[in-house]
Design goal:
There is one protein chain. By secondary structure, this protein is of the alpha+beta class. It contains three helices and eight strands; from the N terminus they run ααβαβββββββ. It has an eight-stranded antiparallel beta barrel. A hairpin with a 4-residue loop joins strand 4 and strand 5.
């Protein structure tokens, strides 16, 4: 009986170690992500500091939740949208697309050092958002 217990304990421990060591990048992304830092490089001749501040605050109010390895929810002030997401291991890029949009992906950002970094060029200039997992 003791030998059976020892073998069972060994198998359980070995299985637990293998599962914990093979955590996929996708599983590391599951959870709630919020903007912790927003950087702007806007043309200040076109925008006032108050307008830039409003843009930054608006970005901080929008967050997203990776529900599982393919579904995400994007939550903004009064709206919630569901989308599909994927992770490109080669480029470390997180993309998403909405149903009915012809599966055309939008790039959310790159997964770097435990953060998702989103860079966008707009008519106002460049905005970079650093999302961190809660």
């Amino acid at each position: 009986m003791r030998r059976f217990f020892n073998i069972s304990l060994f198998i359980f421990t070995a299985s637990w170690i293998m599962v914990s060591c093979t955590s996929s990048a996708e599983s590391k992304l599951i959870g709630t992500w919020k903007a912790q830092k927003v950087e702007t490089d806007f043309n200040e001749n076109k925008l006032t500091p108050d307008m830039i501040s409003q843009v930054v605050e608006m970005q901080k109010q929008t967050y997203f939740r990776m529900v599982n390895d393919s579904v995400m929810t994007i939550i903004s002030k009064n709206n919630t949208h569901e989308a599909k997401w994927s992770f490109d291991k080669e480029t470390q890029t997180v993309s998403y697309y909405f149903n009915g949009m012809g599966n055309i992906p939008s790039i959310l950002g790159k997964f770097t050092e435990g953060k998702i970094v989103s860079e966008s060029k707009t008519p106002m200039g460049k905005i970079t958002i650093y999302y961190e997992k809660e």
